[in-house]
Amino acid sequence: MIDRERFRENFIYLDKEVVIEIIDIFLSEYVERLSAIQKNITEQDFTRLKFNAHSLKGVIANFMDPVSIELSRKLDEHAKNETSKGLQELYNNLKRETESLAKELQEIKADFT
């Protein structure tokens, strides 16, 4: 769940159009990012998994969603340590939370328009 107050603080100096564009970019890319992470897990490609999990964590951090940030951080850490135990469950939780984040962002976007 997005911390709405911190979200507003993060984007306070940007025009509404820019915030909408940032949201739109996330909405258009997150499914592909999650698919890449799932592929990395399936293939046990920890190098790519670290890159993709870290990248997603950075993007999600913009939206002040502490649960998704923490899950992506844990996924990044698992990749760094090449720990496969629990990866799929962690991914499933991250996917669920990221999908929830996307829905919240669509609501926020609607409020901006």
Q: What does it look like?
A:
There is one protein chain. The protein is mainly alpha-helical and 113 residues long. α4 packs antiparallel against α5. It has five helices and no strands. The protein has a single domain, classed as HPT domain (Four Helix Bundle (Hemerythrin (Met), subunit A)).
Q: How do the helices and strands line up, and which of them pair or pack?
A:
Layout: H1 4-10, H2 16-43, H3 46-61, H4 66-80, H5 87-112
Helix pairs in contact: 2-3, 2-5, 3-4, 4-5
CATH architecture identity:
Up-down Bundle
**Main sheet?**
none
CATH fold annotation: Four Helix Bundle (Hemerythrin (Met), subunit A)
Number of strands: 0
CATH class type: Mainly Alpha
- The CATH superfamily is known as HPT domain
The dominant shape is: elongated
The parts where pLDDT drops under 50 for at least 5 residues are: none
Mean pLDDT: 94
How many independent structural domains? 1
How much of the residues is beta strand, in percent?
A: under 5%
SSE string, helices as H and strands as E: HHHHH
Tell me the span between the first and last alpha carbons: 21 Å
| Rg calc | 14 Å
Number of DSSP helical runs: 5
The helix fraction, in percent, is over 70%
